[in-house]
Request: fold
Amino acid sequence: MPPCDVYRHTRRRRWSLKVGGRVVGHVEAVALAGVALVVRPGALARVRDRHVREVCALARGTPTAAPRPPGARRLRFDVYGAGTFLADGQPITAAALAWFEADGSAWISED
Reply:
């Protein structure tokens, strides 16, 4: 599969996969390599100001079958908090690998 964007679809409770600006599927879990963590400032501002649902943060990378190692760090994003991705409380913008799990959690490894 080519590089894609991944974000949480809150109503479906699945991860949405977007390729070339088009949603190509919804999956329970997915792993990405060469991950860039993207926050869209305009969308973030609209969500905060209007309290509307909109994709304002996503992960961009290439799907992989790499298993999650025990040392992976928890990845979080709070739209009403810092407005950045956080790993163990520290801002982060990229990772070597990321895992998006069926329970809605996300994990990264910088190795």
In short: The chain has a mean pLDDT of 95.
